[in-house]
């Protein structure tokens, strides 16, 4: 379930808002998404996968955690952006970098058509 939106990393690109199939987020007055309907989260990880700066943390649990996770510990354990890395999106991206990039697509020279 979505647990954290890191304001200091967020670039207000709205990719998480757009990717969420259950409209868990609303855009805050400053552009940073807010978790408005945590109970509607399906733990699909799409928001985390699409976040270009690893500003979100989705816990693999289907229920809210009893206490907010320690962001420093999550970062040290490589869990911020962990799902994105597991699926291979954003290869070469610097964790926490404040730049907006999408998934890495192969160049035409790497595409094999059979």
UniProtKB/TrEMBL annotation:
Domain 4Fe-4S ferredoxin-type: 1-30, 31-61
One of the record's GO molecular function terms: metal ion binding
InterPro entries listed in its UniProt record: 4Fe4S_Fe-S-bd, 4Fe4S_Fe_S_CS, Fe-S_Ferredoxin
Pfam families in UniProt: Fer4_9
Keyword match Transferase: no
Name of this chain's protein: NAD-dependent dihydropyrimidine dehydrogenase PreA subunit
Species this chain originates from: Nonomuraea jabiensis
Entry superkingdom: Bacteria
Keyword tags: 4Fe-4S, Iron, Iron-sulfur, Metal-binding
């Amino acid at each position: 379930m979505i647990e954290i939106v890191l304001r200091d990393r967020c670039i207000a690109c709205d990719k998480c808002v757009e990717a969420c199939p259950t409209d868990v987020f609303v855009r805050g007055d400053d552009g940073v998404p807010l978790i408005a309907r945590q109970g509607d989260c399906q733990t699909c990880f799409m928001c985390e996968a699409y976040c270009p700066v690893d500003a979100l943390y989705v816990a693999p649990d289907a229920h809210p955690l009893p206490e907010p996770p320690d962001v420093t510990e999550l970062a040290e354990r490589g869990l911020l952006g962990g799902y994105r890395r597991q699926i291979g999106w954003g290869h070469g991206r610097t964790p926490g970098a404040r730049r907006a990039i999408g998934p890495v697509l192969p160049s035409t020279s790497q595409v094999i058509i059979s």
